[in-house]
Amino acid sequence: MSMIMLYFILIPLLCAAILFVVPEKYGKLKKVFFILSALFNLAAVCLYFGKNVFVNYDWTSFNFSMSLFMSGFKGFLLIIPAFFAFLTAVFTISNMKDNPKAPLFNASMMLAIACVNGAIITDSLIFLLFFIEALAIPFILMIISSVNNNKKLAIKAFAITAVADLFLMAGIAIIYSIAGTMNISEIALELSAPSQIAAFTFIIIGAAAKLGVMPFHSWMPEASEKTSVPFMVFMATAAEKVLGVYIVIVALNMFDAAPCNTTLILMCFAAFSAVLAALLANSQKSFKRMLVYTSISQGSFMLAALLSGIPLAIAGAILHLLAHTAYKSSLFFGAGIMDNTKSETISYKNNPYIFMSFILAIASFIGVPFFAAFYSKELIYDGVIHLNVILFSVMVIVTFFCSSAVLNWFGKIFFSKDGEHVEYPISSMIPVVTTALLCVLLGVFKNIPSHIIENMIIRYEYQEHTHVALVVISISALVFVLLNFIIGFKKYKNGLGFVSGIISKLGINKLDASDAADPYNIAVLSYKSFGKASFDFDSALNWIYDVLIVKTFLWISFVFRKIHNGSLPQYVLWTLCGIAIIILFFV
Amino acid sequence: MLNEIILILIIAVPVVFSCALPLIGGFSVTIRNLAALFLAVITFGLCLSLAPSVFCGEIINFYYSLPLGFNFVLRADAFALICALASSLVSAVIVLYSFEYIKPYKNQNEYYFIVLLFLGSMMGIIFSANLIFLYVFWEMTALASWRLIGFFRKDDFIRRANKAFMVTAAGAFLMLIGFIIIAEQAGTFDLQGIRTAIAPGTVKNIAVILILCGIFAKSATFPFHTWLADAGVAPSPVTALLHAAVLVKIGVYVYARLFNGIIIPSEEMRLAVFLIITLSAFIAGGAALIDKDIKRIIAFSTVSQLAFIFLGFAAGVPLAFAASTLFILMHSTAKAGLFLSAGIIEHETHTKDITKMGGLLKVIPITACAFILCMMSVIGIPPLGGFFSKFLVITGTAQAGYTAVAFIFVIAATLTLFYMLRLFYKVFLAEPQTSLHTSKSGIWTPMNFSVSFLAAVSLIFGLCFGKLMTIAELAANQVFGIL
């Protein structure tokens, strides 16, 4: 039993190694092996779901061990990336068939699965950090493995991720200094002392970067256009989001994070990011960029919900993680199929499967009752409204703007006059339809995931739901956004309706168009300025060594040469002076 | 008794037999090269032969009494042996790399003689347990590095060699005065005697300041660091030897040895050290972001990373000490790999200016792969060894109660990330410059083999970190007197 836990890491690692090493002449065999590996991983995590196992391996001194801990909740989280990895693997059959770097992508994805599995099942903070930082390697390789020249983007994404991971490192270091252990399950801290607040904040920063919260988001819009759809689905939508949510939950469990000023401040940042990203989503000229901005918004939305510390909202955030991954993957896969079109528009009459899939995914996205995201958002609203009404209102607004953006694109894609007919193989369609159906299934059988999640949340207690009022508010907002879309589209040929006025008034479109507003660019410029100042300071120091000291010694030498003029009386006088000084010194 | 003989041989073999290399070189260049490699390997082998005893907790002592307290005392504990193994291993790889690199140049006999003499002196410093002999070996390394930096004999290069010598020798002179003050206070130059004679926190601050001047000068720490970047004019294997593996580690080693266990400085002195190393990490890291010379960038990186090593040793807790001990190991291998890769890059492109490079990933893929691994170790990306050592240095510092300092060094780590990524991008990924003439050389040359070996070692160290940490804990416990 003890070794089985390690296999969750070692088997994907071995598969990755095989995919890296086996030569390309066995290309077809490698493809089959890749899909089977992803399927095997999915089967393994499903079979292990619900088991509670703790294993401790001696690793090294200072009481550091490599402990692995599997629980029902962790099993649930493991299934999400495993399932979407399998669908992504199926999607790559046709989507990446003309990409010569596809083998690199496939191998990297298996490596990423090993890292994600490792990060989730480990009970040691060192290894949590280890796997999360190690994920940067497949991350960068997957970006590079698309057909475009993505080297600069890869560097950018890597830098952003690595900086966030350093914050996580700082948080973990401080936790160890306070708790004296690296074992997650043994840590129980309060959130009161400055060092505790600092540790909690740093860990949340690390998690926020995984969730794509601003300002760590800036690689994502560019990635949506330059990298492959499989990367966006597996890495940006599934794996990173799951890890982000997992890290926040770990932090909440380690710290007794009942709502307090620290969590409230962090929630405000998350809420701001959610609103801004939702607004930005409405100003996008590309479908994939719009999807990415809604991802950023929804990631921030989940973070805010988790930070509320209210079990109901936490349960909602976890369910929303699943719902969001499902509908966003469906839309991304659909976008992947549309890559073959010139205008990002397709005819709904000639492409009924895509059209239907999009309807299901978008219905979940905008929160139509009986779809997954409706229930997840209701849970979140239900929890958050107990804490803060303003925050609840912000969340409703975020949902409204995200819905507006996606409906606008739905209209553009399927109801434009120049809608094209696209040819697509069955392997591309399977993931689109599967994920779309998942949106329905998760809604219809909502009790299954929510029951699992609610049982897993520590300190979960049933709270009286203010359900009816919230449902009315949600449905009113939904009706409003639909009316806005329909009226806007029919009357002005603009699905954004009155939202477009808000966007242009606030100057949101300018914000996105300017590179100067990119937080990464701002950071790079700041670093360059600091570097220039350091370099100048170093040059000044060099001048002291190379010029000042040398010239001073030459001058002293010159003076001594001058006074050594061969005059005996003068030498005798110096000797007498020297003797006098010595006598004075000793007396 | 056998272990004591081995201990003496570790120092004597490279020091004594290095003198024979110029003579052998008169007969055969190949035999001289092989003899130099053999001496370096045998030094490593001798160190390795002590490992079973020392890493099980045994401390090997050799004592030979001399007049005026100048006793010849050697002591091999786990900390010393880890440093000796790191230095001798990297030195052996550097000698192998030199076969190809140094081939076209004059004064090869002197080169190999000085390199081996340098290695022997380093071994002397590591195992010396008497301040006077430590000083003697210290100055021997200064002389050797002076000759090596000025190896190409151009006027500007000699000026830079003189600068390196003057800065380190002036620092050493101040350090000697510090040693004398300590000896006056303790009544002996022997480290164990000093340990028992001076109570923690009672050492004279002036002695600590003077010794720190010597240490910081040797380890190229702010404000004495400028010689290191200038010393980049030396041949690449020399820069690897001086900047990465051996010379700059001397100061760090002596700091760790003296100020943990032997002399416990006051809290004010500790805070002063934190301030200096913080400045060092930031100024050097910032300068590395701007400089265009590949060797200077890596040299600045060394200055910055040395601050991390100092941090662990200055924190004063076993965890940080053990982490810094392994940081020496990880940094030595990775940084030597980077410097040697820089040598290959310079060899291929005939320039050190990174803005004139680009696209080398396809031209020299083996070097590029080795460079990536070594760079990842320096940045601290798992599974490379640099990840664990950097993380545990930060953790140990926080554990010692210096949480703010730990966080400041996390910020410094972001500088490492940025300058390393810039360097890698400009050299390997950016669009190739039209003016660049690259000469694609053979694949498995000694130079490529050397850098690949160091990259592989960096990876293996990361994978075996658990075992290494156990040894480092033993080292820390011995130094802190827990064992």
The run of helices and strands of chain B is HHHEEHHHHHHHHHHHHHHHHHH
Instruction: Give the neighbour order of strands across the main sheet of chain A.
Output: 1-2
Mean pLDDT of chain A: 87
Shape of chain B: globular
Query: Strand-residue fraction of chain A?
Result: under 5%
Structural class of chain B: mainly alpha
What's the helix count of chain A? 23
Stretches of chain A where pLDDT falls below 50 for ≥5 residues? none
Strand content of chain B: under 5%
Q: Could you please describe the fold and organization of this structure?
A:
The complex is a heterodimer of chains A (587) and B (483). Chain A has 587 residues and is an all-alpha fold. Chain A contains 23 helices and two strands. Chain A has helices at 2-21, 27-48, 72-95, 102-121, 125-134, 136-144, 151-179, 194-211, 219-226, 229-254, 261-281, 287-307, 311-338, 352-366, 372-387, 389-414, 426-444, 447-456, 467-492, 499-506, 508-513, 519-563, 568-586; strands spanning 53-58, 65-70. In chain A, strand 1 (53-58) and strand 2 form a beta hairpin. In chain A, helix 3 (72-95) packs antiparallel against helix 4 (102-121). With 483 residues, chain B is mainly alpha-helical. The interface between A and B is large, with 46 and 56 residues.
Keywords for this entry:
heterodimer; A: 587 residues; mainly alpha; 23 helices; B: mainly alpha; two-stranded antiparallel ribbon; 21 helices; 77% helix
Show the helix and strand layout.
The complex is a heterodimer of chains A (587) and B (483).
Chain A (H helix, E strand, L loop, with lengths): L1 H20 L5 H22 L4 E6 L6 E6 L1 H24 L6 H20 L3 H10 L1 H9 L6 H29 L14 H18 L7 H8 L2 H26 L6 H21 L5 H21 L3 H28 L13 H15 L5 H16 L1 H26 L11 H19 L2 H10 L10 H26 L6 H8 L1 H6 L5 H45 L4 H19 L1
Antiparallel strand pairs in A: 1-2
Helix pairs in contact in A: 1-2, 1-4, 2-3, 2-4, 3-4, 3-10, 3-13, 3-17, 4-5, 4-6, 4-10, 5-7, 6-7, 7-8, 7-9, 8-10, 9-12, 10-12, 10-13, 11-12, 11-16, 12-13, 12-16, 13-14, 13-15, 13-17, 13-18, 14-16, 14-17, 15-16, 15-17, 16-19
Chain B lengths: L1 H17 L1 H8 L1 H26 L5 E5 L7 E5 L1 H24 L6 H20 L3 H19 L5 H32 L4 H7 L7 H14 L7 H5 L5 H10 L1 H16 L4 H24 L3 H22 L2 H32 L10 H4 L1 H15 L5 H15 L3 H27 L16 H18 L1 H15 L4
Antiparallel strand pairs in B: 1-2
Helix pairs in contact in B: 1-3, 1-5, 2-3, 2-5, 3-4, 3-5, 4-5, 4-11, 4-15, 4-20, 4-21, 5-6, 6-7, 7-8, 7-9, 9-12, 11-15, 12-14, 13-14, 13-19, 14-15, 14-18, 14-19, 15-17, 15-18, 15-20, 15-21, 17-19, 17-20, 18-19, 18-20
